[in-house]
Design a protein that fits this description.
3-stranded mixed β-sheet, Ubiquitin-like (UB roll), 18-stranded antiparallel β-sheet, 821 residues, 13 helices
Length: 821
């Protein structure tokens, strides 16, 4: 500071070319002021028109102008009665370029430079270069980067501007080699250090970077240490000192923390006082601690938060709860008094939505449980947030409740939405020797024209499978939340060409569905559909189980091809030709005129299907939920008079337990059962349940678990007819379950677009209820990645199947993907 004043004084003396004689200033002329406005200069110039100028006033003027930092030179002279101020402006900073920084974002570095006055557009002072280097080195030192090298350069540009270029060589971060806590007698070093974010080098340090020293991280660890003791009754705990030592090569950090534990206290009397806008007993019931219990600061904080929530739910948005301890050092007891200051009761003036570019306001507003003009309720605001997050077209929701300016009893609810790409487009082309060229196109709009309605259209085409499906749903067909949807579908399948369960079918149907809200979390779903199905099987190539089931079903047998040999009559009741002895003894395919004669059975079925389902969903978001639960219980049946009469029951549950802020346990179970009724004695094979695949028991190919078909004699001549499993045919009972531990995804940015989970899947499909055996469950374990990527939803499973049969079709890697828009 003294050096700066001395420099300004010397410059002031050198800037006056002669000794001034006093004179009255008639005008002031500024020379060299190109960028700095004249008005700004006159603000700092203590001489005005009409003043009498003296030597001392000139000196003061020069000092004042130098102190602004805008000028590198200031001279004052006289031209008659005109005071001439000649200025040399310092250059302006045109740009600040930073290169080489990885550990610290450019924005953070620029913020530190802004704090010392280095900002684009401001005046540049060469003396700042040293300060720039010191500031950046300081920031890196605070992150444990003690080997950082900062090189700052200045390049002059036209129009009196400069470019500041900063090259950073971060070097390697110093690693924590040792952490020692001194003064602890109640808890071990390991117990205390386990609570820290900082740690010595371990197997996971490459990912977590917990062995890299940071001043901010250490300060946070000290707060955690204090909380650890305070939550266990040691209210006199104190961190006496902290020593951070760095090795000579600046590669190793040694941390020593000296503490004083103090004595352990218990809770004493607990009272509630203040402005009782609710019954005192209500607040007393919210106290979570008891007399005689070991004191814990987190319990007092939990009590305060519970009281604030209760007050917030009845309009007291800005209530304050102040827990005041009264400490008895002799008895080691802490009496607690909770002072309640509810403030004014607040109501909501407006609800505003921000960030919704595609989605209409009314689509979002109908999910709000907090209303304009009503008393503010914290629980209703939180519930509104969850309902918005449950929408498939919403990725993130943030809600703020700022006070209305000029009032003390009104707030606005500001809802900021980050929309998800709710439209999905999938196109795929593939080829295999079995199925030939396969193409599939599907389009799904879950937020049609911003209305929240769903429209999907799918076309699949291959040598064995062709499908056309159209679906539309309005989730708010009525203002009360009753939904209505329609579907039309048609498909043909030649499973024989895909080596699946060798039969072919064609299906067509139309349906209408509606769902009704029963409560805030519960809905009843109903569906009525008309379907027509045609199934074709071939005696001798279709699995015997499927062929016999087809024969046993009702329906209309409308075609057999080709004509049977002479003397062979068709019995349409049991699907077997008579007399059987005219068939070749080893091959059920006849020969006539040198051509194969397969015995083909075609049957058509018509169904009027009804479905009813109850669901309860309290999960906190649509994609990657972290808490809540989902339950579903449903029944589907073909109405009496359908050509095949059957029913199916399904139940599913998903329960989420947040173990920590970033760790979630997910439990999922699903069971399905079906059977025939009336003239049908079993569930039709084409309504069977299947399991296995990307979203079922992972590690097994799609729909391959469960009963297998018989194998033809001529395919395995040395084995009995049913001794070797063949193609999956499904069953009437399905039981599957999953345990997942969801944890943060490495390298992913913050948000809810990706999830990584360890999983254990189990389950199987059984022919009938009596065949159920838990020991027949197939199991798998591994890692699953689900990512709502910009190119579409991606699922990748790395699975290890176990307890599998040698004929099970397993896969170690499974994936699926689509596209979104």
């Amino acid at each position: 500071m003294i050096k700066s004043l001395l420099l300004i004084t010397l410059l002031s003396l050198s800037s006056v070319g002669f000794a001034f004689e006093s004179f009255e200033v008639e005008d002031i002329r500024l020379v060299g002021a190109d960028r700095i406005s004249h008005g700004t200069i006159f603000t700092y110039l203590p001489i005005e028109k009409g003043d009498t100028v003296t030597q001392s006033s000139v000196t003061r003027s020069i000092k004042s102008l130098f102190r602004t930092g805008y000028f590198s030179d200031v001279k004052i002279s006289r031209d008659g009665s005109v005071l001439v101020v000649s200025l040399t402006e310092r250059p302006a900073i045109a740009s600040i370029d930073i290169d080489g920084n990885k550990a610290i974002k450019t924005e953070e570095l620029l913020k530190g430079l802004r704090d010392i006055g280095l900002v684009e557009g401001e005046v540049f002072d060469k003396l700042q270069l040293d300060r720039v280097q010191n500031e950046l080195v300081r920031q890196y030192y605070s992150r444990g980067k003690y080997n950082v090298v900062v090189d700052a350069k200045v390049k002059e540009l036209d129009r009196n501007r400069v470019r500041v270029s900063i090259d950073i060589d971060e070097g390697k971060a110093a690693k924590i080699k040792h952490i020692k806590v001194v003064g602890n007698t109640v808890f071990t070093d390991e117990e205390l250090i386990d609570t820290f974010e900082s740690d010595t080098t371990n197997l996971l340090s490459w990912y977590s970077s917990d062995d890299q020293y940071s001043k901010e991280k250490l300060n946070g660890d000290l707060e955690k240490l204090k909380s650890y003791y305070m939550d266990r009754g040691y209210i006199d705990f104190n961190v006496e000192s902290v020593q951070v030592t760095i090795s000579q090569d600046k590669k190793a950090i040694y941390i020593t923390i000296n503490i004083s534990e103090g004595k352990q206290y218990t809770f004493g009397e607990m009272k509630v006082t203040g402005d009782m806008v609710l019954d005192k007993e209500i607040f007393e019931r919210l106290i979570v601690s008891e007399k005689g219990e070991i004191f814990a600061r987190n319990l007092t904080e939990a009590t305060s938060e519970r009281m604030k929530i209760v007050l917030g739910n009845v309009g007291y948005a800005f209530a304050e709860i102040t827990p005041v301890p009264e400490i008895d050092e002799e008895k080691l007891v802490v009496d607690m008094t909770y002072y309640i200051s509810p403030g004014k009761r607040v109501y909501v003036r407006k609800i505003n939505f921000n960030g919704n570019i595609k989605t209409k306001d009314e689509v979002l507003r109908r999910e709000m449980r907090q209303f304009e003009g009503g008393w503010y309720s914290k629980s209703l605001v939180e519930r509104s947030k969850i309902r918005l997050q449950q929408q498939p077209f919403v990725e993130e929701v943030e809600i703020e409740t700022p006070k209305v300016p000029g009032t003390d009893d009104q707030v606005d609810v500001e809802v900021t939405i980050k929309e998800r790409n709710s439209g999905q487009f999938t196109f795929s082309v593939g080829y295999s020797q079995v199925t030939g060229i396969n193409t599939a196109v599907s389009v799904s709009l879950q937020n049609l024209l911003g209305t929240g309605n769903t429209l999907s259209f799918a076309v699949n085409n291959s040598s064995y499978f062709k499908q056309l499906n159209v679906f539309y749903e309005n989730p708010y067909y009525t203002d009360d939340g009753i939904s209505r949807g329609f579907s039309v579908n048609y498909s043909t399948s030649n499973f024989g060409e895909a080596n699946i369960a060798r039969y072919s079918s064609s299906n067509g149907g139309v349906g209408m569905q509606m769902s009704f809200p029963v409560s805030e979390y519960d809905r009843i779903f109903t569906r009525l559909a008309y379907e027509r199905k045609s199934v074709k099987a071939f005696l001798g190539s279709t699995a015997s189980l499927i062929f016999s089931d087809l024969c046993a079903l009702g329906g209309y047998t409308y075609s057999t091809q080709p004509l049977l040999p002479t003397g062979v009559e068709w019995n349409g009741l049991d699907c077997l030709p008579e007399p059987v002895d005219q068939l070749p003894p080893t091959d059920p395919i006849g020969v006539r005129d040198g051509e194969l004669i397969p015995f083909e059975v075609r049957k058509s079925f018509t169904f009027l299907k009804a479905e009813a389902r109850w669901s309860r969903d309290s999960r906190n978001r649509y994609f990657n939920p972290t808490r809540g639960s989902y339950y579903r219980l449903g029944a589907e049946f073909s109405t009496p008079g359908s050509t095949a009469e059957f029913y199916k029951f399904e139940a599913k549950t998903n329960k989420l337990f947040p173990l920590t802020e970033n760790l979630t346990l997910s439990l999922t179970g699903e069971i399905g059962y079906g059977d025939g009724y009336g003239e049908s004695d079993k569930l039709p094979f084409f309504e069977n349940f299947f399991a296995g695949g990307v979203s079922s028991v992972r590690g097994y190919r799609d729909n391959t678990l469960g009963p297998k078909s018989s194998v033809l004699i001529d395919e395995y001549p040395d084995l009995p007819l049913t001794s070797k499993p063949g193609d999956p045919v499904g069953g009437s009972l399905k039981t599957v379950g999953s345990v997942e531990l969801v944890f943060p995804t490495p390298f992913a940015k913050a948000g809810n677009t990706a999830r990584l989970a360890w999983f254990w899947d189990f389950g199987n499909v059984f022919s009938k209820f009596d065949d159920f055996e838990a020991r027949e469950f197939r199991h798998s374990t591994g890692l699953a990645l689900k990512w709502q990527a910009p190119i579409g939803p991606i699922i990748i499973n790395f699975a290890y199947p176990f307890n599998d049969d040698k004929y099970d079709d397993t896969e170690s890697i499974q994936f699926s993907f689509g596209n979104t828009f």
